[in-house]
Amino acid sequence: MGRRKGSIGIALVTGAVLMGASACGGGSGSNTVGGDAKAPGKSAPSTSPSPTKPAGPPMLLDTITPQSGTTVGVAMPISVVFTDPVAAKARATVEKHMKVSTSQPVAGAWHWFGDKRADWRPKTFWPSGTKVKIDADMEGVSNGAGRYGVHDYTHTFTIGDDVRADVSVTGHTMKVTRDGKLVRTLSINAGSPQYPTWNGIMAVIDKQEKVHMTSCSVGISCDKGSPNYYDLTLPWDVHLTQSGTYVHYSTGDPTPGGGSARGSHGCVHLSLSDAKWFYGQVKQGDPVTITGSSRAKADPDNGYADFNLDWTQWLAGSASGEGTTSAL
Question: Partner of 270 at 20 to 30 A CA spacing, among 56, 94, 160, 170?
Answer without folding.
Answer: 160
